[in-house]
Design goal:
two-stranded antiparallel ribbon; 2 strands; 67% helix; mainly alpha; 463 residues; 19 helices
């Protein structure tokens, strides 16, 4: 019997992971319904449409299954599901040969990229506290290490890797910019320990080391979100906004860890050539790296360090991107104005040339432009999610433009009379005002003179 190609075997392993439901039995009802619909919808088009498109189709189907939940919950459940799915797929592929293992790693990376594009939005997460959600993660990391040891993975390597991860877990849970370097340092430190004390690690082939490192990253990312669905459900029932934000932050941090799968090949090469772990960044000295010990199953929180401000080139680059999106939104309004005028005039007054001119003149005004921009924004926002951020980003820019244009019109109505009064007042005031002369005393006349000494001021009157 002819063996299946690596791509087909890797997809078969992924489909086996999709059929497993044991990892979500402790989730709440909404999360289970979303995740089940997501995985079932992902199985169908996976072989024909590719990973990215299949994830977009599955995400749309899962959102419809839990349509009353907010979009933030959909995003979190989808990211958690994909993170755990990558772990389950790599667990099942631990005994695969080199071509299948490499293909499975590529599919895992595509799943991670699709997860990053789900509900992508900019935001500052540096102030979100996730430490109170980490105790289940420490337990999940311990279970992951025992599971990998039972599968025959090198003990010294795993102990060094997971000890390094536990010591820096709070930084990995907050999407710290140095997370990529932390994972690399964990791998190189574990490699150095294994080379000194364990001969099994040095004798492993390169592709097997890459497969092992990929699974370590997947286990770390999945452990980070073990308790996220239940924490999200509890925060919803109790109205805890902090719990909602922390759950979403952990889901994004998990996808950030999985994105490091692209660097596994380079890291393994560095490990085989005995490259030393990278020195700490000048902005994060060794003595300032926070290590969070666990006391009574609760991590001891240390003061959070401030990250340096981005350089001027990074700021200009971000501003240029925003300017490009706003230009695209403005051009979209201009491109749709004339076709809309033609459609409206054809239905409202097909034989009336004046009707076309009236519609065109109205849409050229500030109010007409604001209304047209609002309609375009609503249309783009109502489009189904496809994993592409362009429609949602354009819809946001159009909403801002519509609010700005309409706000300017309202401000003109309110401030117009005041500007006119101020202008008229300033026009009526001469440039050089003449100095006013002091009032003069009236001229003396015979009728004003006193006739007797009694009328003299200050003279006493005779009784």
């Amino acid at each position: 019997m002819k063996a299946s190609p690596p791509n087909a075997q890797a997809l078969q392993i992924l489909e086996q992971a999709l059929q497993d439901t044991s990892w979500r039995v402790h989730w709440d009802a909404h999360a289970q319904r979303f995740s089940t619909t997501f995985t079932e919808a992902l199985r169908g088009p996976l072989r024909s449409l590719g990973v990215g498109t299949s994830v977009a189709v599955a995400y749309t189907a899962a959102r419809s299954a839990v349509s009353l939940a907010p979009a933030a919950y959909h995003e979190t459940w989808a990211r958690v599901t994909l993170s755990v799915l990558v772990r389950e797929a790599l667990r099942r592929g631990r005994e695969a040969d080199e071509p299948v293992a490499e293909e499975l790693g590529r599919i895992a990376l595509e799943l991670t990229s699709a997860a990053e594009r789900i509900g992508a939005r900019a935001g500052d997460e540096s102030k979100i506290k996730t430490e109170w959600l980490l105790p289940p993660t420490y337990e999940a990391l311990a279970r992951a290490r025992e599971s990998m040891l039972a599968d025959g993975a090198p003990r010294v390597f795993l102990e060094a890797y997971f000890d390094h991860i536990k010591g820096n877990l709070p930084r990995l849970a907050t999407r710290d910019p140095s997370a990529h370097s932390l994972l690399r340092a964990a791998l190189l430190e574990a490699n150095a320990a294994a080379r000194q004390r364990e001969g099994e690690w040095a004798g492993m082939p390169v592709w097997a080391k890459r497969n092992l490192v990929r699974r370590c990253l997947a286990e770390t990312a999945a452990a980070l979100v073990e308790g996220t669905p239940n924490a999200l459900a509890q925060s919803t029932q109790g109205g805890n906004r902090e719990g909602k934000e922390a759950s979403m932050a952990l889901a994004r941090a998990s996808c950030q860890l999985l994105a490091s799968l692209t660097s596994v090949e380079g890291w393994v090469w560095e490990a085989d050539h005995e490259v030393a772990p990278p020195p700490p960044s000048p902005s994060r000295p060794v003595e300032e790296i926070p290590v969070f010990p666990v006391v009574n199953n609760q991590p001891k929180v240390q003061p959070k360090m401030t990250t340096p401000k981005p350089p001027i080139m990074k700021t200009l680059q971000n501003d240029a991107v925003d300017a490009a999106w706003r230009t695209a939104a403005s051009q979209l309004v201009k491109l749709t104005r004339e076709p809309l005028v033609a459609v409206l005039s054809r239905h409202l007054g097909p034989d009336d040339e004046s009707m076309r001119k009236k519609i065109a003149d109205f849409l050229a005004t500030d109010v007409g432009t604001a209304l047209l921009t609002s309609v375009l924004s609503v249309g783009l926002a109502a489009m189904p999610a496809t994993g592409n951020e362009a429609p949602q980003r354009l819809a946001r820019e159009l909403r801002i433009k519509a609010m700005t244009d309409m706000g300017d019109v309202v401000a003109d109505v309110l401030m117009g009379p005041l500007r006119q009064v101020m202008s008229l007042y300033l026009q009526g005031v001469p440039a050089n005002l003449p100095a006013e002369a002091p009032p003069e005393l009236p001229a003396a006349s015979p009728s004003n003179l006193p006739t007797s000494s009694s009328e003299v001021v200050g003279a006493p009157k005779n009784s």
